[in-house]
Amino acid sequence: MLRGITAVAAALALSACTGLPMSGDVNVGLDLGEVPDDSDFLFIASGPAPGSGPQEIVEGFLEAAISPADNWNTARSFLTPKLQTTWQPGAGVSIDDAVVSRTFSSSIPDDEVESAETGVVQVQIDLVASVDGEGLYSESRGPSTRPFTLSRTDDGEWRISQAPDGIVIDEARFPRVFDSYALQYFDQSWTHLVPDTRWFPRRTSIATTVTRALVGGSPSPWLEDAARTAFPADVQLAQDAVLIDRQQVADVALTPAASRLDPTTLARMRTQLQQTLDLADVRVSQVRFTVDGRTLDAGVVNLPVDAADQGPVVLTDDAFGVIVGDEVSPIEGISDEILALPQRVRAVDLARDALHAAVQLADGGVYVVGDGRVDLLDPRPGLIEPSLDPYGYTWTVPADAPGALKAWSTNVTEHAITEAWPNASAISALRVSVDGARVAAVITLGGQHWVVVAAVVRDEAGVPVQLGEVKQLTLVDGDARELVWLGAERLGVLVDAPTPVLLTQLVGGPGVMEVPPTGTISLAGARTESGIRALDATGTLYAHAGSAWREVAAGVQVLATRSGE
Question: 325 partner at 20 to 30 Å CA-CA among 127, 149, 346, 422?
Fold first, then answer.
């Protein structure tokens, strides 16, 4: 029995319609390809005040260094002339808890500041995370110390003569100064694009920044076993700028080696870059590669296109299928078979083509249902909920044996996956991404619960055979038994902390906590962050409506997931 679907659907549709302004002055827009500045970001950095002491110079330098304007010229004014030319602000970012939590200690006693010529100021910070020189974000918590050596200049002012490369910024202001950009790489089969999140200052030329990072770079170390770039190592940018003309064509000048590339490679390169620019909100009609002013004939790759979102998939007391209006629409070859199962259904993961589903029953066994058949895949005790990948393989693993990971084909052939979570003592959730190149999990390491990801290594037939290096995303305070993908870059995690919370975690970035509906027991992912659904213990299904949760249906026994979500 379902209720409340139609009214809630209408409310959601209305809340999504923000409308276009129909009155007011006409304003000049941005240049083509230009990214708008965030109005919250405008920090006015000040240079050193005359007569400032060593600690004041260091404090001012740290504050000025969060502004990348004019190549950090204001921050450089706190440095000696020699250090101004060698300090590298782009070497990395240390993200600390808050400015007020920083402590300063000076080697110069207060009564000797006027007569001293040199000194050292130590700054201790409560480190939260870091970003390296390639823009890769890592959670890293704990105390950390930054030393600054100062000396007198010829005019008697204190300036910093030695300083660590990179900058320090507090957690609150980091997302206002830096933004995430999803560089696009291909999977092993050259079929799917795989995002790799990087962080760059907002006020740089983003078109040039992301193009330089993509053309001259490679996937993150943890991802490199499952992702590849079409850009050869000997092909680089010939100009240090990407120009976007009035027809929104991005002109990318490459070194002469590009003129020798075959059409397939050029098409893959163009596809990678166009998709990267589009996701960075740099709107271009096309990318044009040139060598010495001559345009290269580069096509594009036809990528798989998912069908439109068909709504949540649920099991009620008398139906299984997709919610359409106020009814549950059955799925041919699957619904009748699931309803006829002799045991209670615990979990269902539906393939993206809806031709089969992985089903876990009350006894813990995992079955494949499709084409009117029900076949047992994995009878091992203690299995967590299964996950289907885009190649049709069902992933299963016992909660107390993370290394015993297996993938099953629809013809009930098992494939052991090696190097699976080698240091984990337990696993509570696992989901394969929509591209099939990554797998996310919640594992226990040394008694701590970590949300992690790893690359999926496949053979030439697409069979998963091994996991790559484990990338720790974030430590969670409590058991986490529900894990879903929200698009290609984010995860949703239901954490049973003292008070249950829903964590939305960026793969390669920070997470955001919110309160889920009371009594939430399961989640279903979506292609966007806002599309997440939650089911409570009474059988009520909820969907996001802005910052709130609204009831979608009641009488739901199982909230199914879809492959890759």
Answer: 346
